Amino acid sequence: MGRNRATLADVARRAGLSKTAASMVLNGREGTRLSAEAHQRVFAAAEELGYRPNLAARSLRTRKTATIAFVSDIVATTRFAGGLIRGALDAARERDHVLLITETQGDATFEQYAIEAMLDRQVDGVIYAAMATRRLTVPPAILGGPVVLLNATSADGLPCVLPDDDRAGRSVAAALLEHGHRDAIALIGRNRLKEDDPEVSLAARARLGGIQQALDEAGVSLLAECFCTEWLPEHGYAAMRGLLSRPSRPSAVICMNDRLAFGAYQALGEAGLSVPDDISVISFDDDPIAAWLRPSLATTALPHEQMGRRAVELLLDGGPAEPSLVAMPLRRRRSLAPPAG
């Protein structure tokens, strides 16, 4: 208490170097020809003295505050939020930046207030994130500086980070083909609204396109396609019951997300059928429930942690305006087997 805060001059004096040389070392600036031993002296002196840089003075000098705004609609309260935020936090910390996080809950008035409050703090840039992968309208207030969209696109030609749903669709179909399924693959989760309106979903059309491309290349057609008004367990349950009432039963089912697959599992169990001995099931998202289902559900994982990290990297390093696609790894679990009989 009451102890004077160490200054850059104190660090330089302790290290036996000029203030300019000490500053270059601590700021990681290129061009210094100091020896490794001199670098060590500076870092040791800073640690011994408890030196902390004057961020206010540095921001005046560099016009950088080492802060990033993370603005989302309702990401922070969704089950996938942790990965998006954790990835962004980790990447920001590795680059000596602080993430300021706010959630708007879809309230336009509060969103405007929150954005203005963050811009007043002179953040170095804004990550604007969406809960569902979709096209959105970016608030004009944030367009004056660096912006990266996370899990979203816009008409503004901004850099954006998206999961590679198209490639995930191809990998899901390929996994069934590898197991020998060809003539009796069904699809649960067709939804015109999700597929046709990018402001509702970008994932549905991309997943469907990937599935169809992989099957077309293999000369395979779907046995049946089930339309669902929502991607929820009860709709997966109803769709699977409908499939089981058909004259020809599918050997494998692709569900457009894990919640649909959960409902499909329940319908199969009630019908006395086994996954995967009677019917294989594969899905998308890698919701935590996927690993807990019995048998565990094969699915492609939404790479939210990697997406959050990529958004920070794009914001700080710059990048092209086209989407930066992050791979969705296939979780090969026990719900896949060759066709019965």
UniProtKB/TrEMBL annotation:
Residues in HTH lacI-type domain copies: 6-62
InterPro entries assigned: HTH_LacI (IPR000843), LacI/GalR-like_sensor (IPR046335), Lambda_DNA-bd_dom_sf (IPR010982), Peripla_BP_I (IPR028082)
GO MF assignments: DNA-binding transcription factor activity; transcription cis-regulatory region binding
SMART domains reported for this sequence: HTH_LACI
Keywords: DNA-binding, Repressor, Transcription, Transcription regulation
Domain of life: Bacteria
Pfam families: LacI, Peripla_BP_3
SUPFAM superfamilies: lambda repressor-like DNA-binding domains (SSF47413), Periplasmic binding protein-like I (SSF53822)
Protein name: Transcriptional regulator, LacI family
Organism classification: Bacteria, Bacillati, Actinomycetota, Actinomycetes, Micromonosporales
